[in-house]
Amino acid sequence: MDKTVRLWDTASKACLKKFSHSDYVTSIQFNPVDDRYFISGSLDAKVRLWSIPNRQVVDWTDVNEMVTAASYSPDGQSAIIGSHQGSCRFYKTADCKISPEAQIDVQSKKRKSQAKKITGFQYAPGNPSEVLVTSADSQIRVFDGVTMVQKFRGFKNTSSQIAAAYTSDGRYVVCASEDSHVYIWRTTRSAPAAAAIGIGMKPKTWCTIRSYENFYCKDVSAAIPWTHSPSLPGSPKSHQGVVSCNDDVCSMASHAAKQDVSKSGELSRVTKSGELSSPAAPSPHSGPLDTPSSRHASKTGANAPDSGNAWGLVVVTATLSGEIKVYQNFGTPFRIKGQGNLFY
């Protein structure tokens, strides 16, 4: 918290360069196509584009609100900036020049006095027009351009700098929570529920997902999905990758398992993990892992059947005490009599 950005050599653990700001820095990101440049957002309300070789600002803009999140688009030609007041501003960044493009406000129009800061962005894998927006009103939103198309609810984020993230295939969203849990939602999208539309009212463009999986991680402050596809236990390569299924990996299924049955008749497996463990691979035909319980209903309607599942999903977490833990899901889906579709 010294109002600087520092560039580190991960091999020598040496600080190579320092980039000073006039206030605390809240977010940074390398340009995804040219890592000689990075973008930074600061509480001084300024967004800066930096040249690393020259160690200087190449362009900047003042957004007149404290900047709490910043992210390049996948092609590096634009950026999205989030503020403490809940606004998202889109800028063009081609040729290292910042120019305004569009703006959206995520806070409720009915409760503008309770505007919540934007805490993170991520563009959807394979779909650069969609961006995942996390905010401190305990909601995650998906925007297609400037149109909201999806919401995820259930986690808690009221004051933390928590950011949600897609898995590499875009099928799941993972996010830490202030209640010491990590939440996972499936991104399968259903049509918005039909509602009566009055004169002058716009039709609803989004669906809200309240069905989720979660597992316990004490004081978790950040959670991201591992971008590679690690081998599952029992496979010949299970101990050859960076993430292996040994004592360095926490099993989401090492303790109690829960079930989440939504109104649409779908099943959501919720697993909970504590200490480090080295579980054996379950049989694909195995039944419930442990004691079932039920909570949290979905208002989104039935999702389309999905052939994939989250078995083998790896989540990396960081906690307020400085611990980094790696969890891997070994739970296998199972069908409850009378249930048509599965959420897993």
Beta-strand percent range? 35-45%
Task: Round the Cα radius of gyration to an integer and report it.
Answer: 21 Å
How many β-strand runs?
26
Main sheet characteristics:
5 strands, mixed
Shape: globular
Average per-residue pLDDT, rounded, comes to 77
**Low-confidence sequence ranges:** 235-248, 253-307, 339-344
Q: Based on the structure, what is the oligomeric state of the protein chains?
A: single chain
Approximate helicity band: under 10%
Please give the domain count.
2
Notes on the protein architecture:
The chain has two domains: 128 residues, YVTN repeat-like/Quinoprotein amine dehydrogenase (Methylamine Dehydrogenase, Chain H), CATH 2.130.10; 207 residues, no CATH class. The strands form seven sheets. A five-stranded mixed beta sheet has the order 11-12-13-14-18, with no helix packed on it. A four-stranded antiparallel beta sheet has the order 3-4-5-6, with no helix packed on it. A four-stranded antiparallel beta sheet has the order 7-8-9-10, with no helix packed on it. The chain is mainly beta. It is built from no helices and 26 strands. The C terminus is likely disordered. InterPro entries: WD40/YVTN_repeat-like_dom_sf, WD40_repeat_dom_sf, WD40_rpt, WDR44/Dgr2.
Q: What's the arrangement of secondary structure elements?
A:
Blueprint: E1 4-9, E2 14-20, E3 25-30, E4 37-42, E5 46-51, E6 56-62, E7 67-72, E8 78-83, E9 87-92, E10 99-105, E11 118-124, E12 127-135, E13 139-144, E14 147-153, E15 165-166, E16 172-176, E17 181-186, E18 207-209, E19 213-216, E20 220-225, E21 250-251, E22 257-261, E23 266-271, E24 314-319, E25 324-328, E26 341-343
Parallel strand pairs: 14-18, 21-25, 23-26
Antiparallel strand pairs: 1-2, 3-4, 4-5, 5-6, 7-8, 8-9, 9-10, 11-12, 12-13, 13-14, 15-16, 16-17, 17-19, 20-24, 22-23, 24-25
